[in-house]
C-alpha cells in the first residue's frame, strides 16, 4: 500500500479507537472519481467514462449489539452521532450522517427481522469512523467515496454477500432517498470498479461496465485537475432542476429516457420542446455521442496516436455544459479556457457543476505550465487560488486491513 494510504488507514484506525475504544473489525477505503467525459448522462440511462483517482475515503468499522448506527468522522473532530438502524428511513436522517445511514437503509440493515435472521437473533449495530482525503464539493464525488467504503464495510461485517454492482445500486438508492440528492449511478460504479491505468465505460441503463485503457504515462500525457474551490451541493443546487428538465423532454418526445434520442432526432425535438428544455436535451444527446466516440478512440489507441482527437471531445463537452446545460461558472470557464491557451489538448468541467473542478488533458511537458497559467489567471480575475494537482486512473474500493 502506498505510504499516503498507509497513513490514511493508520489515522482512521486511531480515530476509531479514540471515538469508540477497541473493537475495530477492519478498515475499508474507496476512491473519489474524475469523469473523463459524460456529464449528466447517467440518470438519463446513457453512457459515462469516469475513472477512480488516488484520493480515497477510509472507514474503520466495528460491530455493536445495541441496534445503533454510530458515525464519527475525522472531518468532524470525532464527534459521534447515533441513530437506531430500525429508525433509518427517507426523511428521518439529515445532514452528513444521512450518507452512511442511507447506505445502511438501502442494504436492508434497518429491517430488524432480516437483520435478526442474519445475526442469530441479535439486533445488529455498527460503529463507523470515516476519514476522507477526497475534497468535498469539488466535483470529485467525495460522497460516493464515503458511501462505497461504508457499503464494503457493511457487506463484510454483516456477511451480506452482495456483488459490487448491487453495492453500487444500494449506495445510489441511499443517496437518492435518504440524502435526497437525485444522482445517477456513475459515481458509485467508478469508485467500486476503478482500475489502475483504465477508465470505466459504463452503460447506465444496463448497469454494465468495462474497463477501457487510459495509459496516460505511456502516451506522454497528464490530466491536470484544477479545483476552483467553489463549493456545490447536488441536493440543494440546480442539479435537480436539470434532471427534471431531462425527464420532461423524454416524456414529450415519447421515450423512456434521453438515451433513446439520437443526434438525428434533434431537429424534431426542437419543434416540440421549449427552447430551454431543448438545450438541456441537446446536451445529453450529444454528450452520449461524445462518450461513445471517446471510447472508440481510446480502444483504437488514439491516446498515443491522436491525443488531440480526445482533447477535442473534452472541449466540446465543456462548451455543451456551458451553453446548453448551463452548469458551469465563470471560474470553471476561465480555468478551461486558460488551460487550452497554455497548451492543453482539451479541457472540461468535471462533476455535477455549479462549482467544482475542471480537468485538462495536457502533454506532460506542458502540465506544469498549464497549472501555473490557471493560477495566474485566477489571481488576475480576483478568484480564490485554485487547488492544482494531477490525477491518474487508480484502483477502486477495497478492504485495506
Can you characterise this structure?
The structure is a single chain. With 401 residues, the protein is an alpha+beta fold. It is built from 13 helices and twelve strands. It has helices spanning 3-20, 98-106, 112-118, 142-157, 164-179, 186-193, 239-253, 266-272, 275-299, 302-305, 307-323, 330-341, 364-381; strands at residues 26-37, 47-64, 68-73, 81-84, 125-132, 198-203, 208-213, 221-227, 346-350, 357-363, 387-391, 398-399. Strands 1, 2, 3, 4, 5, 6, 7 and 12 form an eight-stranded mixed β-sheet that branches. A hairpin with a 4-residue loop joins strand 6 and strand 7 (208-213). The termini are close together.
SSE order and pairing:
Elements: H1 3-20, E1 26-37, E2 47-64, E3 68-73, E4 81-84, H2 98-106, H3 112-118, E5 125-132, H4 142-157, H5 164-179, H6 186-193, E6 198-203, E7 208-213, E8 221-227, H7 239-253, H8 266-272, H9 275-299, H10 302-305, H11 307-323, H12 330-341, E9 346-350, E10 357-363, H13 364-381, E11 387-391, E12 398-399
Parallel strand pairs: 3-5
Antiparallel strand pairs: 1-2, 1-12, 2-5, 2-6, 3-4, 6-7, 8-10, 8-11, 9-10
Amino acid at each position: 500500500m502506498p505510504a499516503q494510504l498507509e497513513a490514511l488507514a493508520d489515522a482512521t484506525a486511531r480515530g476509531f479507537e479514540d471515538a469508540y475504544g477497541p473493537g475495530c473489525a477492519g478498515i475499508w477505503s474507496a476512491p473519489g472519481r474524475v469523469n473523463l467525459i459524460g456529464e449528466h448522462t447517467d440518470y438519463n440511462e446513457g453512457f459515462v467514462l469516469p475513472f477512480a483517482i488516488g484520493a480515497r475515503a477510509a472507514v474503520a468499522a466495528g460491530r455493536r449489539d445495541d441496534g445503533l448506527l454510530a458515525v464519527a468522522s475525522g472531518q468532524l473532530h470525532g464527534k459521534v452521532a447515533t441513530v437506531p438502524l430500525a429508525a433509518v428511513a427517507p426523511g428521518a436522517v439529515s445532514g452528513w450522517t444521512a450518507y452512511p445511514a442511507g447506505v445502511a437503509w438501502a442494504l436492508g440493515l434497518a429491517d430488524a427481522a432480516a437483520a435478526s435472521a442474519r445475526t442469530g437473533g441479535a439486533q445488529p449495530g455498527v460503529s463507523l469512523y470515516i476519514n476522507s482525503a477526497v475534497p468535498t464539493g469539488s466535483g470529485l464525488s467525495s460522497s460516493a467515496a464515503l458511501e462505497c467504503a461504508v457499503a464494503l464495510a457493511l457487506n463484510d461485517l454483516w456477511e451480506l454477500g452482495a456483488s459490487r454492482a448491487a453495492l453500487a445500486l444500494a449506495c445510489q438508492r441511499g443517496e437518492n432517498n435518504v440524502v435526497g440528492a437525485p444522482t445517477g449511478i456513475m459515481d458509485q460504479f467508478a469508485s467500486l470498479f476503478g482500475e489502475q491505468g483504465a477508465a470505466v465505460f459504463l452503460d447506465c441503463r444496463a448497469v454494465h461496465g468495462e474497463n477501457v485503457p487510459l495509459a496516460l504515462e505511456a502516451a506522454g500525457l497528464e490530466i491536470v485537475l484544477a479545483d476552483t474551490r467553489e463549493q456545490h451541493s447536488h441536493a440543494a443546487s440546480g442539479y435537480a432542476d436539470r434532471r427534471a428538465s431531462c425527464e420532461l423532454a423524454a416524456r414529450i418526445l415519447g421515450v423512456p429516457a434521453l438515451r433513446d434520442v439520437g443526434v438525428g432526432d434533434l431537429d424534431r425535438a426542437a419543434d416540440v420542446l421549449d427552447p430551454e428544455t431543448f438545450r438541456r436535451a441537446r446536451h445529453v444527446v450529444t454528450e452520449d455521442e461524445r462518450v461513445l466516440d471517446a471510447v472508440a478512440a481510446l480502444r483504437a489507441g488514439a491516446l498515443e496516436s491522436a491525443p488531440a482527437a480526445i482533447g477535442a471531445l473534452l472541449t466540446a463537452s465543456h462548451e455543451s455544459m456551458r451553453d446548453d446545460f448551463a452548469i458551469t461558472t465563470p471560474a470553471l470557464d476561465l480555468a478551461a479556457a486558460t488551460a487550452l491557451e497554455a497548451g492543453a489538448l482539451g479541457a472540461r468541467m468535471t462533476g455535477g457543476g455549479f462549482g467544482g473542478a475542471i480537468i485538462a488533458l495536457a502533454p506532460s511537458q506542458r502540465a506544469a505550465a498549464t497549472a501555473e497559467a490557471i493560477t495566474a489567471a485566477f489571481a488576475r480575475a480576483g478568484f480564490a487560488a485554485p487547488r492544482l494537482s494531477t490525477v491518474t486512473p487508480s484502483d477502486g474500493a477495497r478492504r485495506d486491513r
